[in-house]
Description:
The chain is α+β, with helices and mostly antiparallel strands. It has a domain at 35-88 and 178-330: (Glycosyl)asparaginase (Glutamine Phosphoribosylpyrophosphate, subunit 1, domain 1). The protein is built from 10 helices and 12 strands. It has helices spanning 2-19, 22-27, 49-60, 66-79, 123-133, 141-150, 161-171, 241-247, 249-258, 263-280, and strands spanning 41-45, 100-105, 111-117, 138-140, 188-193, 199-205, 226-229, 233-239, 290-296, 301-305, 311-316, 320-325. The strands form 2 sheets. It has an 8-stranded mixed β-sheet with strand order 4-3-2-6-5-1-11-12. Strands 7-8-9-10 form a 4-stranded antiparallel β-sheet, with helices on one face. A hairpin with a 4-residue loop joins strand 9 and strand 10 (301-305). Helix 4 packs antiparallel against helix 5 (123-133) and helix 8 (241-247) crosses helix 10. The longest helix has 18 residues, at 2-19. It is globular, with a radius of gyration of 20 Å. Bound molecules: N-hydroxy-L-asparagine. N-hydroxy-L-asparagine is lined by residues 183, 186-187, 205, 207-208, 217-219, 238-241.
Amino acid sequence: xxxxxxxxxxxxxxxxxxxxxxxxxxxxxxxxxxxxxxxxxxxxxxxxxxxxxxxxxxxxxxxxxxxxxxxxxxxxxxxxxxxxxxxxxxxxxxxxxxxxxxxxxxxxxxxxxxxxxxxxxxxxxxxxxxxxxxxxxxxxxxxxxxxxxxxxxxxxxxxxxxxxxxxxxxxxxxxxxxxxxxxxxxxxxxxxxxxxxxxxxxxxxxxxxxxxxxxxxxxxxxxxxxxxxxxxxxxxxxxxxxxxxxxxxxxxxxxxxxxxxxxxxxxxxxxxxxxxxxxxxxxxxxxxxxxxxxxxxxxxxxxxxxxxxxxxxxxxxxxxxxxxxxxxxxx
Length: 331
Ligand code: SD4
């Protein structure tokens, strides 16, 4: 009898919560997930997110952990030499060296990251090893490589013929001028909510093509390229890392969701902040691309980018795997 009364009370509370706007709930304290969450679900950046999502879904559909799903997912483009902006096959820096950035974050806020890592095909798995097997959260350059080798990762040549050819072509002018969307398919950022209702994320890239040696972008920086808060949601970024770092973009998106914003509205606000700071510095928006994707604890998702051309892949039980064009700022 007592438990029945309790059930009725809880149901009544849930019904009341479901009609209160998110913004008001957020003002009352922290983000309060209402309604039945849509889970599992996974989303990832760009067209190559489709194959990555399919690998992640194999984990999620079997009640696996979101952390395992995002690692398995982003390993797909990392291992594909035809994908020229992530892992093996990625375009080199201006000295002809392929240097990789990656990070991972789980539902307990465990984090691991590697930056400027050479010769290892799957930097995301090294980032996970940093998270699970060291007292630190980030290893860079030679230290990251030494650690990877000590963990049994193989040293390989990651520079494929096509990337080397492009680099030699680039050397003729050596003009460092990133052009929006030209790198096609860019960084993979992946965020997932598993059947247990837990969130995790992963982000991995070879960074800006022909960057200065040692340059690190947003992708391995927790808060910039990726952020997960298991109470609220997760977000990840692609595009010009310098701008994303300046606004701590992914953390900003998650904090905006905590305040009651929908995933798309939070991504839009983060892009608008970047726009403001680019303009404040008197720079042109034309050659810059930034894209955010976000997922909240209820399984609602969204994205927004600076200019047209950014898409992302979403996989859930209801609608399967699909590619969606993000709305954009520069119309
Ligand atoms: C970086 N955000 O290194 C990455 C690369 C990327 O579009 O996503 N390029 O800045």
